[in-house]
Design goal:
The complex is a heterodimer. In chain A, 40% of the residues lie in helices and 25% in strands. In chain A, the strands form 2 sheets. In chain A, strands 6-7-8-3-9-10 form a 6-stranded mixed beta sheet, sandwiched between helices. Chain A has a 4-stranded antiparallel beta sheet with strand order 2-1-4-5, covered by helices on one side. In chain A, a hairpin with a 2-residue loop joins strand 9 and strand 10. Chain A contains 9 helices and 10 strands. By secondary structure, chain A is α/β, with parallel strands linked by helices. In chain A, helix 3 runs antiparallel to helix 4. Chain B has a single domain, classed as MetI-like (MetI-like fold, Orthogonal Bundle), CATH 1.10.3720. In chain B, 80% of the residues lie in helices and 0% in strands. The chains are: A alpha/beta, B mainly alpha. At the A-B interface, helix 2, strand 6 and helix 3 of A face helix 5 and helix 6 of B. The complex binds adenosine-5'-diphosphate and magnesium ion. The site of adenosine-5'-diphosphate (ADP) has 10 residues of chain A, from helix 1.
Chain lengths: 263, 221
């Protein structure tokens, strides 16, 4: 089943056109890797998909709902904005954990805030709310175990290594059960000896259910985990295919040049 | 009069100094945040208005501002000051102090907010938080942590500045000391006042250090 459709996406900063017409689709449970040299527009694409940038043209359809349409000038309500925001999840290159919250609070804060917005009307609702808060707590603990950091729940981010911080960031994104989870070079800010633990965690998320888009420079990793690979160059999709096709037998000379430098 | 008696008399004035101090903080800390918002808004005319306000408040003597506030009912609206009620002097002191300190606090808030990385806003946004939640739950606590040292400086200055209220005749500790000094023909009241200001500040500084400590359970890169 198709979960994402990106069509005709364009984005410029001042004079420079960074995305020059991006089209692709994603099936539920599919894992897509995006590779490409620095400056080719990978981050901008992910930011558009997560509504951190507003594209100049094109549409983004998540499930059967049009989440963004550059031709539609109607202002979205706060509720609509949040709804589409929560369909997507993003793990940043630089983690962006909240330094003033403990690891566990980093995971729970967004869910707690959402819950707090609905004021309980009576005792019964208060009781459900309490149960829901406990469920959020349990979920955070489960996810921390999943990324191997159950013992760090009460630590502050500064006390963690880069690899641990990124694992917390992944758990935090998972808390909200996004339809599509995006990673922007999740290991690029890490010392080489710490990339393994983060890649292992990402690998453990590949269960055939979860849809993920991973921008990465880890070619071997991309080759192993992806169902499909996109190579981006100068704001367009230069080549797209299975890992075997793109890595094993690239059609475009640009892709070939990029991959040969990487090896 | 013994030194002890002098201290006792000064403490009468101290009550007003402490009230000026506390009320100024209560009003100027939130007001400063509002002014900071006005200064940082994308609406250019508004932002300029606040910029000018801050510039005037910081560029002219507080004592002068106290005069302006105190006399403005008369000069602006021709209301005789005796019709302003018995408390007008005290109220005008608080208004003057609050308006002045809010301008300084606004600039401190602004520097703190500007030092926050865009990544914090974006992380909050992708987690579905709205603007208000993002500001008050993610940004502001970190900003406060960062600006606490500058805030402490201002707060300590405020303790000493409370003595400026004497200029329009508000009786506080310094006025009291002056009166005693002339009636007793002695320097001792001034020495006593200096001691009390010093202790007042020592208490304030200790309290601020406590607050800083409470906020330092985490470290910001
Ligand atoms: N906010 C921005 N303002 C101006 N230029 C930008 C901005 N974001 C990205 N760019 C430019 O867009 C181009 C693509 O950047 P980016 O999407 O980060 O590429 P990649 O992630 O593939 O390295 C770069 O030339 C970069 O300088
Ligand atoms: Mg990038």
């Amino acid at each position: 089943m198709q979960i994402l459709n990106v069509s005709g996406l364009r984005k410029s900063f001042k004079e420079q056109e960074v995305l020059r017409g991006i089209d692709f689709t994603l099936q539920r449970g599919e894992i897509l890797s995006i590779i490409g040299s620095s400056g080719s527009g990978k981050t901008t694409l992910l930011r558009c998909l997560n509504f951190l940038e507003t594209p100049d043209a094109g549409t983004i359809t998540i499930g059967d709902r049009v989440a963004f349409d550059a031709a539609d000038t109607r202002k979205l309500t706060a509720k609509e904005k949040r709804a589409r925001q929560l369909q997507m999840g993003l793990v940043f290159q630089s983690f962006n954990l909240f330094p003033h919250f403990t690891v566990k609070k980093n995971l729970t804060i967004a869910s707690e805030l959402r819950l707090k917005e609905e004021k309980p009307q009576n005792g019964a609702e208060k009781a459900t709310k309490k149960a829901q808060l406990e469920a959020i707590d349990r979920k955070a603990e489960e996810l921390l175990s999943k990324v191997g950091l159950a013992d760090k729940a009460n630590d502050y981010p500064y006390a963690l290594s880069g690899g641990q911080q990124q694992r917390v960031a992944i758990a935090r994104a998972l808390m909200l059960d996004p339809e599509i989870l995006c990673f922007d070079e999740p290991t690029s800010a890490l010392d080489p000896e710490l990339t393994g633990e983060v890649l292992r965690v990402i690998r453990s998320l590949c269960d055939g259910e979860r849809t993920m888009i991973i921008v990465t420079h880890e070619m071997e990793f991309a080759r192993q985990i992806s169902h499909r690979v996109i190579y981006m160059a100068d704001g367009v999709i230069e080549e797209e295919g299975t890992p075997e096709e793109v890595f094993g037998n690239p059609k475009s000379p640009k892709t070939r040049a990029f991959l040969s430098v990487k090896d | 009069m013994s030194f002890f008696q002098i201290l006792l008399q000064l403490c009468e004035g101290l009550g007003y100094s402490v009230m000026i101090f506390l009320l100024t903080l209560v009003f100027s800390l939130p007001l400063g945040l509002l002014i900071c918002f006005g200064r940082m808004t994308k609406i250019k005319p508004v932002s300029w208005l606040f910029r000018i306000y801050i510039s005037i408040m910081r560029g002219t003597p507080l004592m002068l501002q106290l005069f302006v506030v105190y006399f403005c009912p008369y000069y602006l609206f021709r209301i005789p000051l005796r019709n302003m009620g018995d408390n007008w002097m005290f109220v005008s002191v608080i208004i003057g102090f609050a308006l002045n300190y809010a301008a300084y606090f606004a600039e401190i808030y602004r520097s703190g907010i500007a030092s926050m990385s865009e990544g914090q806003y974006e992380a909050a946004r992708v987690l579905g938080m709205n603007k208000r939640q993002t500001f008050f739950i993610i940004i502001l606590p970190q900003v406060i942590r960062r600006i606490l040292p500058s805030l402490t400086n201002e707060v300590i200055t405020l303790v000493k500045d409370t003595s400026l209220a004497f200029a329009i005749g508000q009786i506080e500790m310094f006025t009291m000391a002056k009166r005693l000094a002339s009636s007793e023909v002695s320097m001792l009241p001034y020495v006593g006042a200096a001691m009390i200001y010093y202790v007042f500040n020592l208490i304030v500084a200790t309290a601020m250090a406590k607050v800083e400590k409470r906020f330092s359970n985490y470290v910001i890169k």
